[in-house]
Amino acid sequence: MSKRRKSIDLYSWLPYGALICVLVVIYISNVHRVQKKIRVINAEHKEIEELKREYFSIKKRSMYNGTLNQVVKEIDGIDLDKRVSMPKKIEKSNV
Fold first, then answer.
1. Which residues contact 65 (CB under 8 A, 6 or more apart)?
2. Which residues, at least 6 apart from 75, have a Cβ–Cβ distance to it below 8 Å?
3. Of 2, 14, 50, 51, which residue has the fewest beta carbons closer than 10 angstroms?
Protein backbone atom coordinates (compact mmCIF):
# COMPACT_ATOMS: atom_id res chain seq x y z
CA MET A 1 0.00 0.00 0.00
CA SER A 2 2.84 2.36 0.72
CA LYS A 3 4.17 2.00 -2.86
CA ARG A 4 0.76 2.86 -4.25
CA ARG A 5 0.51 5.88 -1.95
CA LYS A 6 3.88 7.23 -3.17
CA SER A 7 2.78 7.00 -6.80
CA ILE A 8 -0.44 8.82 -5.98
CA ASP A 9 1.54 11.59 -4.25
CA LEU A 10 3.83 11.85 -7.29
CA TYR A 11 0.91 12.19 -9.69
CA SER A 12 -0.77 14.78 -7.48
CA TRP A 13 2.34 17.02 -7.75
CA LEU A 14 2.80 16.47 -11.50
CA PRO A 15 0.70 19.50 -12.65
CA TYR A 16 2.65 21.80 -10.33
CA GLY A 17 5.96 20.44 -11.61
CA ALA A 18 4.81 20.95 -15.22
CA LEU A 19 3.76 24.52 -14.40
CA ILE A 20 7.17 25.24 -12.89
CA CYS A 21 8.90 23.80 -15.99
CA VAL A 22 6.78 26.01 -18.28
CA LEU A 23 7.55 29.09 -16.19
CA VAL A 24 11.29 28.31 -16.27
CA VAL A 25 11.20 27.98 -20.08
CA ILE A 26 9.33 31.29 -20.37
CA TYR A 27 11.84 32.97 -18.05
CA ILE A 28 14.84 31.68 -20.02
CA SER A 29 13.35 32.76 -23.36
CA ASN A 30 12.58 36.21 -21.95
CA VAL A 31 16.17 36.62 -20.72
CA HIS A 32 17.55 35.66 -24.14
CA ARG A 33 15.20 38.09 -25.92
CA VAL A 34 16.18 40.96 -23.61
CA GLN A 35 19.91 40.25 -24.02
CA LYS A 36 19.50 40.29 -27.82
CA LYS A 37 17.76 43.67 -27.64
CA ILE A 38 20.51 45.04 -25.40
CA ARG A 39 23.17 43.94 -27.90
CA VAL A 40 21.28 45.68 -30.72
CA ILE A 41 20.89 48.87 -28.66
CA ASN A 42 24.60 48.91 -27.78
CA ALA A 43 25.58 48.45 -31.44
CA GLU A 44 23.31 51.32 -32.50
CA HIS A 45 24.70 53.50 -29.70
CA LYS A 46 28.26 52.92 -30.93
CA GLU A 47 27.18 53.76 -34.49
CA ILE A 48 25.52 56.98 -33.31
CA GLU A 49 28.67 58.02 -31.44
CA GLU A 50 30.79 57.35 -34.54
CA LEU A 51 28.44 59.38 -36.74
CA LYS A 52 28.46 62.21 -34.20
CA ARG A 53 32.27 62.35 -34.25
CA GLU A 54 32.24 62.33 -38.05
CA TYR A 55 29.67 65.16 -38.11
CA PHE A 56 31.74 67.37 -35.80
CA SER A 57 34.87 66.63 -37.81
CA ILE A 58 33.19 67.67 -41.07
CA LYS A 59 31.69 70.74 -39.39
CA LYS A 60 35.09 71.79 -38.03
CA ARG A 61 36.72 71.30 -41.44
CA SER A 62 34.02 73.33 -43.21
CA MET A 63 34.27 76.14 -40.65
CA TYR A 64 38.04 76.27 -41.16
CA ASN A 65 37.74 76.19 -44.97
CA GLY A 66 35.18 79.00 -44.82
CA THR A 67 37.56 81.53 -43.31
CA LEU A 68 38.71 84.40 -45.51
CA ASN A 69 42.33 83.25 -45.68
CA GLN A 70 41.36 79.73 -46.75
CA VAL A 71 38.94 81.04 -49.38
CA VAL A 72 41.68 83.28 -50.79
CA LYS A 73 44.02 80.27 -50.98
CA GLU A 74 41.35 78.27 -52.80
CA ILE A 75 40.71 80.92 -55.45
CA ASP A 76 44.39 81.68 -56.14
CA GLY A 77 44.52 79.25 -59.07
CA ILE A 78 41.27 80.53 -60.55
CA ASP A 79 41.14 83.85 -62.41
CA LEU A 80 38.85 85.61 -59.97
CA ASP A 81 39.21 89.15 -58.75
CA LYS A 82 39.95 89.53 -55.07
CA ARG A 83 38.10 92.18 -53.17
CA VAL A 84 40.63 94.59 -51.75
CA SER A 85 38.34 96.99 -49.95
CA MET A 86 36.24 96.11 -46.97
CA PRO A 87 32.52 95.73 -47.50
CA LYS A 88 30.42 98.80 -46.75
CA LYS A 89 27.67 98.84 -44.21
CA ILE A 90 24.31 99.98 -45.57
CA GLU A 91 22.52 102.25 -43.16
CA LYS A 92 18.86 103.02 -43.12
CA SER A 93 18.09 106.70 -43.61
CA ASN A 94 15.60 108.41 -41.36
CA VAL A 95 13.38 110.17 -43.85
1. 71, 74
2. 82
3. 2
